[in-house]
Structure formats: C-alpha cells, structure tokens
Amino acid sequence: MKFPFNRIITTTKFLIAGLILFSTRVIGAEISYSEYNNLDLYSLEGEIEFNDISNFENILNRTRSPNKKSLIFLNSPGGNLHAAYYIGALIFKSNIATVVPNDFVCLSACFTILISGSSRFADLGSTVGVHRASLNFRENLSSKGTSVDMNEFYRSMNVPANIRLAMLDTPPSEIYVLTNEDKINISNMNVAEFKEPSESSQTKQIHPSNNPLSTTITNPLRSTNSKSSQGSQASSKITSNIFLQVNDIYGQDEIIGNISLERDSNKKFTNLKMVISRFNSTGDALWTVKDFVRNCQSPSVPNLELVTPVHTTDLNQNGINEVWMMYKESCRDRQTPADLKIIMYEGKIKHAVRGKTEVPNKYMCNNECGYFKFDSQMNSAHQAIKNYALKLWKSGVNERF
Predict the structure, then answer these.
(1) Which of 3.30.460.10, 3.90.226.10, 1.10.472.10, 3.30.70.2740 would CATH assign to domain 5-222?
(2) The pTM is what?
C-alpha cells in the first residue's frame, strides 16, 4: 500500500505558499489549515513564538472536526519552548498526528511538538534535532532545571533513552541531529489511519526506511547526524548505545550512555567520545562518566569500546548497587598496548582501576603490558569489591588482533 504523502505534501506546500482556507502569521510561525480527502490538514512553518499558542488554538476551534483524521506538518528551527509545550498539548488533546516530511526541519522546541502527536513520523530526508534549553540564548540554573523537565517529558512520550541523553549532553549553541535510526525509532505512524478510500484496509507501520519519499540527504546539516554548530565541518555518528535500569536505596534509576565517532571533513582526524550517566526519576544525574580519544590521525586507528557490558553488583550487601564499566581506548597503527580502565560507582562514590592491555607481541610492550593501578577509593574498598575488580581486569586485559 502506498502512503499518499506526495499529494499531501504538495497540498502542504500550497498551504505554506498561501493557497489556504485559514492562516495566521503576525509574529512567529505561520500556521495554516486546509482539507484533503476528509483530512484536517495543518502546517506550522517558521520560528515558534508565544502568540502562536492563541493563533493555533483559534484555528483549531474554527476547523477541527472530531470525526476526521488530522495531520500537522512541521517545518521549524525551534523558538519559544513554553509555547511549544502548549501547542504540543493542544495537538495531543485534539488527536492530531505530527509529520516532518522530506526536506523539512524540526529542531529544538519543535521536537517537543513532534513527539506530542497522536502518532508521529520523521522522514529520513528530514532534519530533526535537540539540545538543552536556554534563557535568552544562555544557560543558568533555571534553564538547566527546564532541561531536566524536558528529559522527563521526553521519557513520558517514549522518546528513546539515547536521544534524551543527547539532549542533556548538547549545549544550546549546538544541535544533536537525529540519525536515521533515531528517526525510525521515534516514528510510530500507521498508514491505515490516513489511507485514501480506494486503498486497501491492510495496516502497515510507517518508518522512514520504507517511505517512498525518503531520499539521499544533501543538506550539510543532515550529513552530520550528530551534534552540529554553525560552521562545523565534522561528520559524526553514534557507534553504540548503553541502557540499564538500576534499583537500590537511591531509587529506580536509569544508566544511559553512548559512544560516538566524529570525523573532520577531510577525514584526517577522528574523535571518539563516551558519555555514561545515572539519572534518577526526576532526570537529575547522580554521576556522569566522560572519556575521549581525540585527534587520532590516519594511518592510526582510533578505538573506544566497552570490554564488558555495563552491569551492577552489590558485593558488600549494603543496598547500594556498584555500577561497573570496563573499556579500552587507543589511537595506534601498530599492535601496541591500549589504555584499559575500570570505572565503578557505588552511589556517588567513584572507584577506578587504570592500566594497559596485554598484547601478543611482547616487543611492543615497552614494559607496559598488563600494568594496572587501583586508585585510592578502590584501594580502600570492601575486599569483595577489590577481588571482583581484579577478576574483571584479568577477564579483559588480553587483546587478540
């Protein structure tokens, strides 16, 4: 079954051009309405301002029929976050689906509207992005609190954990642009909701991967699929995601993280970044682990990977989970030892073991192979914890090329 986006989007372009039944634009976004095949069809184009709340509500009151299916097409760089929340609430209450079509943009506050739809769809050829909140383009305690609230709202709307972490990790001056996989994961639209009368009643899930409008990405912003800032020439992608639920005396928390790769436009330098955080139910981070491989230049090969999955124990049986992660990092063109690290958090207290891997060719060791050192917290930890750290180290120290 073919989803009739081509004709609907053509109608939407006429909306934006001015061939509309209702439209309003004083200051802020242009919000338009038309009708297509018994669909209530809306579009929101431009920067979101506070007065858009009343403008959108007025159009809804005049046009929205509870007996019709409805779509709103989004094409916005963002704007006033509080206005976006209110507009999102109106969309949710009015049972309107949200769509970011091919070549359209939905960044920052617009994402709040997108995820508020009764169902939602982000085309592979669209640009969708998130970042932390700001107040007059600056961060302060108030805006940081708003970012925590955004994380909780994202969670309530079933936004995947890696996108929530990306939002919390991206400053207001930058944008994390959703990858194609991200867009697939947030899209949950059902074609049968919007089929034409002549079409089959067969139900099919819409994802960008099977949408006929998905095209090769040509916009420089889109080619990054990562954090981007004005003038940035880097391309980037998430190489792995981390998610784990933790339940101890601190509460029912989530461990969320990812490892990302960034390469400059000339592909001469590569950076790898790992970020792993423990978030409580209000979105506050109990702790965050960050590590990097920076400016790794060809022909050297960068590597930053978990040796074992992030996992928990309670070895001293005090009701506080120990959260363990072991990873190695390197930038090398020979089979030399890599840096090997174990980071463990018990509650808010960090413990660490740091050293080097073992490699088959001992001539490459330079007296470093297998070396390790406990930090002061690990040295003073319960014996069961130290024994486990040593066992974990031995399980991951040997490299095979």
Answers:
(1) 3.90.226.10
(2) 0.54
